[in-house]
Amino acid sequence: MSWYTFLVLAVTAERITELVVARRNAIWTLARAGVEYGRGHYPVMVVLHTILLACCLAESTLAHRPFLPALGWPMLALVIMAQALRWWCISTLGPYWNTRVIVVPGARLVGAGPYRFLRHPNYVAVVVEIAALPLVHCAWLTAAVFTAANALLLAVRIRCENTALASAAPA
Q1: Share of the chain above pLDDT 90, in %
Q2: Is the pTM higher than 0.70?
């Protein structure tokens, strides 16, 4: 197994861990009258992220993409930083963090951690990861296609989340 395959599998394991945390948090928020928004786009997001991981490996292998240190090492650093930012978001939001849009009516917006600086820092991590992970091993086609697809999906997702947060904000 190549180290790049190991990296993609490690990111896959991280994503599975996120889903476990999200499931636990969904149970917690729904038990507190949480309301889910955006159910229609969620399966698309899951498919996009799953296929991304497969395409990283497929393109690098089938197209015989080389590892170029001048590109690969900085992209690896960005992937690691994206993971750190994602887990900073998860730890800051605690039980309110989720891969789904579930809002507890009356709950206050979190303004700590990375949310002091950005409204949607988790999406910054996603954008960086989707662009950088394929480029670690020169899978430029995967990086381009999934970055564009993710931009379209995030436009829907962020609009959905902003609407959900506004509708559930305390009076």
Answers
A1: 94
A2: yes
